[in-house]
Amino acid sequence: MTKPDPFRYFKTSREIIRLAVMLYVRFPLSLRNVEDLLHERGIDVSHEAVRYWWHRFGPLFAAEIRKRRIASMKSSRWRWHLDEVFVKINGERHYLWRAVDHEGEVLESFVTKTRDKKAALKFLKKAMRKHGQPEVVVTDRLRSYGAALKEIGAEHRQETGRWLNNRAENSHLPFRRRERAMLRFRRMRSLQKFAAVHASVYNHFNQERSLSTRPNFKLNRAAALAEWRGLCAK
C-alpha cells in the first residue's frame, strides 16, 4: 500500500514548499525574511503560509532524514557527548539536552523543565532506544548523568574532563543563532518540535567543510541538496 502524497491539496508546488522550509529551518531567518527572499525569486507567498508549511512538513522531512541516517550510522555507537543548555520559555528556565556522536552528528534533542536524575534518565533511555548503547559516554560533571547511567548499569562507560565535551558544547551554537532569530520560544512543545527538526536538517547539510577539499565539499553539498529535493517524493 502506497503512502498518500503529503503535498496533495496544496496549490503551491512541492519544490517551493521544500525551499521555504529549508530556508526557515536551516538558516537564522524569520518568517518574514523567508517571505522576502522568496519574493525576490518571483514567488509570492505570505509569512503565514511559510509558518503553516514549516509546521506541516518540517517534522515529515526530519523524520525521513532520521530514518535514512540511522540506518547508516553504525559508528555513532562508539562515543557519545552529552550536554544540556538552558532555554527561556515565557521567562521560565527549561533545559535542552543533546546527544552528539564523535563526528558532531546530533543524535537526539530533548526538552525538560529540570535537569535532575529523572530528566537525565528519560533523555538517555529515549536516545538509546533509537540509536543503541554507546561504548563511551562523555559528559560534564553534572551529577544527574552519573546517577542516570548507574541506574541503567552503564556507569563504567562515563568519561568526564575539562575539554572532552567540546563536541557537544559546539553543537549548541547553530541552535543558539536560530533561537535569537526566532525571538525565543513560547511553549515547551514548540521548542521540542523545532529542536528535533533543526537537528535533523543541520545534520543533513553539515559537510564539515574545514575537513575536506573544496571539490569534495561541493560534491557533498550538491548531493545533500539533491537528496533534500527528493524528500517525501511520490
Itemize the secondary structure elements and their pairings:
Blueprint: H1 14-26, H2 31-40, H3 47-71, E1 79-89, E2 92-101, E3 106-112, H4 117-131, E4 136-139, H5 143-151, E5 158-160, H6 166-181, H7 188-205, H8 214-229
Parallel strand pairs: 1-4, 4-5
Antiparallel strand pairs: 1-2, 2-3
Helix pairs in contact: 1-3, 2-3, 3-7, 4-5
Describe, in plain words, how this protein is organized in 3D:
The chain has 234 residues and is of the alpha/beta class. It contains 8 helices and 5 strands, in the order αααβββαβαβααα. It folds into 2 domains: 82 residues, no CATH class; 108 residues, Nucleotidyltransferase, domain 5 (2-Layer Sandwich), CATH 3.30.420.10. Helices cover 52% and strands 15% of the residues. A 5-stranded mixed β-sheet has the order 3-2-1-4-5, sandwiched between helices. The radius of gyration is 19 Å and the shape is globular. The chain starts with 13 loop residues before the first helix and ends in a 5-residue tail after the last helix. The relative contact order is 0.14. The model has no long low-confidence stretch (mean pLDDT 88). Involved in the transposition of the insertion sequence. Pfam families: DDE_Tnp_IS240 (PF13610). One of its GO terms (molecular function) is DNA binding. Keywords: DNA recombination, DNA-binding, Transposition.
